[in-house]
Write a structure and sequence with these properties.
45% helix, four-stranded mixed beta sheet, single chain, six-stranded mixed beta sheet
Length: 272
C-alpha cells in the first residue's frame, strides 16, 4: 500500500461495523504522510470507488500517523521531478482534492496534528473540519518561493474570508487549533486526549449523527449549498435549491420518514 487505508461496509470485517453508512479514509504513510504520486493515485482510486456508493451518508478523512495529519507534497520526490513535469504534478494534486470536494456525500476531516501546505489544502477539500488543541495548520508555500497549488488560494478565502486568507498565505504562519476555530478554519476544536486522536473521535461522533439522516437528503443538501453558493445572485441559488428539492420528493426514504414519524419509530433509510 502507498499509504491509504480505505474502509467501508462492502469490505466485510473492517472497522467501523458500528458505522455502516460511513466510509473511512486513513492517511498512513509514516513519518509525515507526505503526498507522493503513488499516494495521490491511491487516494483518487479510493475516492472514485466511494463516489459510487449510493447508501453512504458520509466520509471521514483522518490520519493513523501520530501527531501528523499531512505534511503536504513529498518534497523529496519533488527534487527529482523535471521542471517541465511540475505543472502536471501540481494539476494532479489539485484534481485529487477536487475529487474529494466533489464527492456527493458529506466529508468530515479530522486534524489531530500537523497539516501543512498541501496537507491543509487536502483538509480544505472537506465539507467539515474538526481539529484538536494540538493541531497545527499553515499554508507554507511562500516560504518555498511558490504558492498553494492544490486549491488553497481559492478555498481558504471562501472559508475564512479574503483578508484573513491573504494574511495566512502571504506569511505562511502557523495556526493552532483554538485560533483555527476562532477564525472559522475548522468547525470545532476539541481538547486533545491521551491517545492523540480527539479530533477523530469527534469526527466519528458527527458521522454517527449523519448516519441517522437520509442519504439522498444529505447529497441534495450538499449539492444545493455548494452549487447555490457559487451560482451568484441569491435568486440563482434559490433555483438550485428548488432543483435539489425536486430530487428528494420521489424518494422512498421521504415516505419512510413520514411513516416512521406517524408510527413513533426510527426511520430505516435506504438511500433511494
Amino acid at each position: 500500500s502507498s499509504g491509504i487505508n480505505a474502509e467501508w461496509p462492502l469490505r466485510p470485517g473492517t472497522y467501523p461495523e458500528s458505522h455502516p453508512g460511513i466510509a473511512l479514509l486513513a492517511l498512513n504513510r509514516p513519518p509525515v504522510n507526505a503526498v507522493s504520486l503513488a499516494l495521490g493515485a491511491e487516494l483518487r482510486a479510493s475516492l472514485a470507488e466511494i463516489k459510487e456508493r449510493k447508501s453512504l451518508q458520509g466520509v471521514v478523512l483522518y490520519s493513523t500517523v501520530g501527531k501528523i495529519f499531512c505534511a503536504g507534497a513529498d518534497l523529496k520526490e519533488r527534487l527529482f521531478i523535471k521542471e517541465e513535469d511540475v505543472p502536471g504534478m501540481v494539476r494532479t494534486f489539485r484534481l485529487m482534492i477536487q475529487d474529494m470536494a466533489e464527492l456527493p456525500m458529506p466529508v468530515i476531516c479530522a486534524i489531530d496534528g500537523v497539516a501543512m501546505g498541501g496537507g491543509l489544502e487536502l483538509a480544505l477539500g472537506a465539507d467539515i473540519r474538526v481539529c484538536s488543541t494540538t493541531a497545527k495548520m499553515a499554508l507554507t508555500e511562500t516560504k518555498l518561493a511558490i504558492i498553494p497549488g492544490g486549491g488553497g488560494t481559492q478555498r481558504l478565502p471562501r472559508v475564512v474570508g479574503v483578508s484573513k486568507a491573504k494574511e495566512l498565505i502571504f506569511t505562511g504562519r502557523n495556526v493552532m487549533g483554538e485560533e483555527a476555530e476562532k477564525i472559522g478554519l475548522v468547525n470545532c476544536c476539541v481538547e486533545q486526549n491521551e491517545e492523540g486522536n480527539a479530533a477523530f473521535v469527534k469526527a466519528m461522533e458527527m458521522a454517527s449523527v449523519l448516519q441517522e439522516r437520509g442519504p439522498v437528503a444529505l447529497r441534495m443538501a450538499k449539492k444545493s449549498i455548494t452549487e447555490g453558493f457559487e451560482a451568484g445572485p441569491i435568486r440563482a441559488g434559490l433555483d438550485v435549491e428548488h432543483e435539489c428539492y425536486l430530487g428528494v420528493i420521489p424518494t422512498t426514504d421521504r415516505i419512510e420518514a413520514l411513516m416512521a414519524f406517524k408510527e413513533k419509530r426510527k426511520p430505516n433509510f435506504k438511500g433511494e
